[in-house]
Amino acid sequence: MTRRKPAVRALHPSVQERLNREAAIDALIQRALRGVITIPEAAVLAEYVRADRRAADKTRKRLTETTQALQRHREAAAAAIQQLEDHIAELTNQQQETAA
To answer: What does the CA dihedral 33, 34, 40, 41 come to, rounded to 10 degrees?
Structure first.
């Protein structure tokens, strides 16, 4: 019995764009290091670097927001747990007083 190969999924468009941008940046930087970059190529390089910086800033902002939301949820969960533990202790005390 032969095993089927898993289907290869296409890259998400934003991932493909990022990979293309990184490849272009690498190629343009190599040209710049050799001193043969043209003004239009330098403009393209600058735009690609700005696009990468915007993406990094957006990601950093989203990660910060996620971290803050996780902290809020942890604090709310801790408060709910504490409230339940207090209620259990109160019920336990009432049950012990009733038994005595």
So the answer is: -60
How many CB atoms are located within 10 Å of the residue 95 CB?
10
Structure tokens at 47: 């735009």
Distance CA 84, CA 76 (A): 12
What is the pLDDT confidence band of residue 1, given thresholds at 50, 70 and 90?
low
Q: Which residues contact 1 (CB under 8 A, 6 or more apart)?
A: none
pTM score, two decimals? 0.64
Q: Are 20 and 44 in contact (CB under 8 A)?
A: no
**Cβ contact 76:70 at 8 Å:** no
| Residue in this structure with the two tokens 């991932």, named with its chain if needed | 15
User: What distance in Å separates the CA atoms of residue 27 and residue 45, rounded to the nearest whole number?
Assistant: 9
C-alpha span between 56 and 63 (Å, rounded):
10
